UniProtKB/TrEMBL annotation, chain A:
The keyword Transmembrane applies. It comes from Chitinophaga hostae. Keywords: Membrane, Transmembrane, Transmembrane helix. Pfam families: ABC2_membrane_2, DUF3526. It comes from the Bacteria. This is DUF3526 domain-containing protein. Signal peptide: none annotated. The chain crosses the membrane at residues 128-147, 178-201, 213-238, 245-264, 453-473.
UniProtKB/TrEMBL annotation, chain B:
The keyword Membrane applies. It comes from Chitinophaga hostae. It holds the Pfam family DUF3526. The keyword Secreted does not apply. This is DUF3526 domain-containing protein. Keywords: Membrane, Transmembrane, Transmembrane helix. It comes from the Bacteria. The chain crosses the membrane at residues 12-32, 128-148, 179-199, 205-229, 236-255, 421-443.
Length: 479, 447
């Protein structure tokens, strides 16, 4: 153990003195600053804008005069997706998910205006965020700094001397890995500082949930960097010379960051094809029509519904009912179409899930995918966070439509007003009484449960890393 | 000697493995492109059928009220992908290529997106343009990083120096062998693409080929400069890979962040709210003021009676129109902002060949933002045509059966993109001249 400590200290000392490190570190600081500043600006701009527009949408809603509740159901409102404060650290898939949706009766609209839709083809080459720097660039830097740890000593013969002096291969590998990990932490430190500043500067003080997410985020990234350090040193130890070690590590990096994530996703999409929007809409419409077409005056389903309502209320015509029949029919129609729509959407999302699971399972062969998934989940920038918004928005839309239908049943008469008569209407106090839209992020425990596979894989990697030290030490030769 | 050197290079096991791997990846990317085209085709067929069915069903159910019928009917306007889109999918998996619109307000519909798996969009498509832009440079680097250092490290460099008149020509010869192999691989892949996807051989394909070839030449020029520094194999590999990281990963990401921060598209949100308010608040306003505003936009409809005792859809569609009219300034501002983004990106890309190549690839394939904006403009014109076609029928309460419904099939957008050869070629040529001269200079002073 003592030998390993000496080696660690020696590694850090030599690396800190090297000029290359100073240059890389300077560039690193610039990149971290740039990523943090632009991330902060995007967050503040978007957060302010969306809150402002959410507020504006609400004002327009409340400004409506007395009117027929069904007019209000069509007036509808908007839901703007709020960003999580930690999205300053990791943009995740935020650029590809929509940001605003119009909520109205009878119709589930798409969530529109994703950043990607406003972007040139450059977006496809990536975005720079603190998370991207840690997950993509830092491993490369660590491979640069770690490829010759053992291999160089092999080349110039110092390895033999070390071994003769009684330092075992295990101490050498462990010592160097630890040294590299300390260097990794030196690189991580400015990112931590940047994120802390970001969180302190934004509008609201970060709550306990944010801090909890941040803590798990740090833990996940530390695990990942530790694994990277072990890989670097072990590859260096089993290579005959430093050049071979470098080429192997660069190959690994490419595979991990570029080739595997893209290929696996392509495989997932090919294995489980998802329908496009048109096919999806057509299928939903077909299923709804199967039950009943509310636009068809002779539709059997709605005719039967009417007859049964009249019978139950001992009435001969809708005029005799004590509630508004139009409101009742729309309530039934909304319930029915929402059920069908949600069932189809669930099926679609199940397909997406199966597509993404291919990548998810790949965490066992590529720890980068694992840390990326975990980071996206914890920063509220993954598919679950997006779905939570979409679900909240749909729940609100449904409630809006049904509340208006209930108001119609309760307050609107069954007789149609004559052309010169004042149309049926209810007081505008009902509009303010209907609460505004809000949405939140999934709670941390549910996120951890959702990412249980990723967490298991990362833990497996962590345990494996110690075996790796052991086996590499057993297999490595001095030449 | 050239043939011997060529054989010597091509016979190496690692070279063969590398070429085989790239060939495989290239073929996969071509198949992904083909699948993309097939999906687009399936969507187009689906919308053609859906439109026909919906028209038939609604015309049967609502034979007596033209205005009510037109509330439901939808008309497709399709951005038919060029086959070249399969080689550079670009933003076409983000932007919907089918607009399926009613004649009601346009702004409330035209920004509707498709349904996509955002995880898939995040990782992006492994199309041929990706293989060429990001992976080919790595192959070039792997082939070239030790072209010179290897000779020094194996001690053969002094032999070379006394045997050839100009050592630089020896290095250039070695580079040219590798260039032939890489270009051969590229042309083989393009040939396979033509065969597998049945791409038409036209100006687009030619331009695509030109960008790819020039881009490859650009990376050879970079390699030439960096190996002329005469560093060890390891250092050369590190330098080349760092250049790749800088040019292909960091620079585009940095620029992209800049564009997002510099041009936030808040007009999108305001258009969204204004079109809704512009239309809906009209229900509570005096109908006469609505109609006067509508007649100011379309004076040709002044003669229709809108205030007959029967409910008149003219007033309804006038209200819809005012939603568009009131959000028009915001919508224009949004388009303007996107054009600014496009221009800035194009300008910066002139100084970064990977970005330039990416924008040109998507430009040629019609899968970039520029094409999307054109399509959006054209969609507005399509919507206007359909609307004006039906307005007289609705306003005059014509018979639904009087309309020839068979003619309302999906219509197609044809882009007017022309290949701008000067813009396409010149940045590459300039870079290569500068790098070539720099490499020669470095090579000579390091002798």
């Amino acid at each position: 153990m003592k030998q390993a400590n000496i080696i660690t200290r020696h590694f850090i000392k030599t690396i800190i003195r090297s000029r290359a490190l100073a240059a890389i570190y300077l560039l690193w600081l610039l990149l971290v600053t740039y990523a943090a500043v632009t991330g902060y600006q995007v967050y503040i701009t978007q957060d302010t804008l969306r809150q402002q527009f959410q507020h504006q949408a609400r004002q327009s809603w409340e400004a409506n005069p007395d009117k027929h509740p069904h007019r209000m159901a069509h007036f509808g409102t908007f839901a703007f997706r709020q960003k999580h404060p930690l999205s300053m650290f990791d943009y995740g898939m935020e650029s590809y998910t929509g940001n605003a949706v119009f909520l109205e009766a009878h119709k589930q609209n798409t969530v529109n205006f994703s950043e990607a839709g406003f972007s040139t083809g450059l977006l496809r080459l990536g975005e720079i965020s603190p998370a991207m720097l840690i997950q993509v660039l830092l491993p490369l830097i660590l491979f640069f700094l770690g490829f010759d740890t053992v291999a160089r000593q092999k080349e110039n013969g110092t390895l033999k001397i070390l071994l003769c002096q009684g330092a075992g291969f295990r101490s050498i590998i462990r010592g160097n890995s630890l040294g590299l990990f300390v260097v990794a932490f030196i690189f991580l430190a400015p990112v931590l500082a940047a994120v802390a500043v970001q969180l302190l500067l934004q509008h609201a003080a970060p709550g306990a949930a944010v801090l909890q997410r941040a803590a798990y985020l740090l833990l996940g990234n530390l695990f990942f960097l530790w694994i990277i350090c072990i890989i670097a040193v072990c590859v260096s130890a089993i290579s005959h010379n430093s050049r071979a070690a470098l080429l192997k590590l660069l190959g690994l990096w490419l595979l991990m960051t570029i080739v595997l994530p893209k290929t696996l996703q392509a495989i997932g999409s090919a294995m489980y094809p998802a329908p496009g929007k048109i096919q999806f809409d057509a299928a939903v419409e077909k299923d709804i029509l199967k039950i009943g077409d509310s636009h068809n005056p002779n539709d059997l389903h709605f005719k039967r519904l009417k007859d049964s309502v009249l019978r139950a209320n001992n009435a001969d015509s809708v005029q005799q009912l004590r509630f508004n029949y139009g409101g009742f029919q729309m309530q039934e129609g909304e319930r029915m179409s929402s059920e069908v729509y949600n069932r189809h959407l669930q099926t679609l999302y199940d397909v997406y899930e199966r597509q993404n699971n291919v990548s998810k399972y790949a965490t066992f062969i590529d720890p980068l995918i694992g840390v990326k998934n975990m980071s996206m989940a914890l920063t509220g920038t993954d598919f679950t966070a997006y779905r939570k918004f979409q679900d909240d928005a749909e729940a609100y839309r449904y409630k809006l439509a049904q509340t208006m239908n209930e108001l119609q049943q309760k307050y609107i008469s069954n007789t149609t007003p004559a052309k010169d008569e004042h149309p049926h209407s209810i007081g505008k106090e009902h509009w303010t009484a209907f609460a505004d839209f809000t949405h939140d992020f999934p709670p941390v425990p549910s996120l951890l449960y959702q990412e249980r596979l990723t967490i298991a894989a990362m833990l497996a990697w962590f345990i494996l890393s110690f075996f790796l030290i052991h086996f590499t030490a057993a297999k490595a030769t001095t030449l | 000697m050239y043939r011997l050197a060529f054989k010597n290079f091509i016979r190496s096991r690692s070279v063969i493995i590398a070429i085989a791997l790239f060939l495989l990846t290239g073929i996969i990317s071509i198949l992904i492109g083909k699948q993309f085209l097939r999906q687009q085709q399936a969507s187009i067929e689906a919308v053609t059928q859906l439109q026909q069915e919906q028209i038939a069903r609604n015309v049967a159910h609502i034979p007596d009220q033209f205005g009510l019928l037109m509330y439901y009917l939808r008309f497709a306007y399709v951005n038919l992908p060029d086959p070249a889109a399969s080689l550079a999918i670009g933003q076409q998996d983000v932007n919907s290529s089918i607009q399926y619109l009613t004649i009601r307000g346009l702004e409330g519909q035209r920004n509707d997106t498709g349904l996509y798996n955002p995880y898939h969009q995040l990782t992006g498509n492994l199309d041929l343009s990706f293989v060429i832009l990001l992976l080919f440079p790595l192959l070039i680097i792997a082939f070239n990083f030790n072209v010179l250092s290897q000779e020094s490290e194996h001690g053969t460099w002094s032999l070379v120096k006394i045997q050839v008149v100009q050592p630089v020509s020896f290095i250039l010869m070695k580079l040219s062998i590798r260039l032939i192999v890489v270009l051969g691989l590229l042309f083989l892949l393009l040939l396979l693409a033509v065969l597998i996807i049945r791409l038409p051989v036209n100006e687009r394909l030619l331009a695509y080929m030109a960008i790819a070839a020039l881009y490859i030449l650009f990376w050879f020029a970079i390699c030439f400069v960096l190996i002329s520094l005469r560093r060890s194999s390891s250092i050369s590999a590190l330098l080349l890979l760092s250049t790749w990281v800088l040019l292909c990963l960091l620079a585009p990401a940095i620029i992209n962040n800049y564009l997002t921060v510099r041009y936030p598209v808040k007009e999108a949100y305001s258009t969204f709210i204004k079109q809704r308010d512009g239309y809906h608040t009209r229900w509570d306003k005096n109908a006469d003021s609505t109609m006067q505003a509508f007649f100011r936009h379309y004076p040709q409809f002044r003669n229709y009676t809108w205030n007959s005792p029967k409910f008149n859809y003219m007033w309804y569609y006038a209200m819809q129109q005012l939603g568009d009219d009131e959000s028009a300034p915001d919508s224009k501002a949004m388009q303007h902002k996107l054009k600014q983004r496009l221009q800035s990106a194009g300008l910066v890309a002139l100084f970064f060949p990977p970005m330039h190549a990416q924008l040109q690839f998507t430009g040629i394939a019609g899968t970039g933002l520029e094409e999307q904006l054109q399509y959006q403009d054209s969609t507005a014109m399509f919507h206007e045509r359909i609307k004006l076609h039906f307005y007289p029928g609705i306003f005059g309460d014509s018979a639904v059966t009087g309309e020839n419904w068979k003619q309302h099939v999906p219509q197609y957008f044809h882009s007017s993109h022309r290949v701008n050869w000067v813009l396409l070629v010149s940045p590459f040529i300039l870079f290569m001249l500068v790098l070539g001269a720099g490499g020669m200079y470095l090579f000579n002073i390091k002798q």
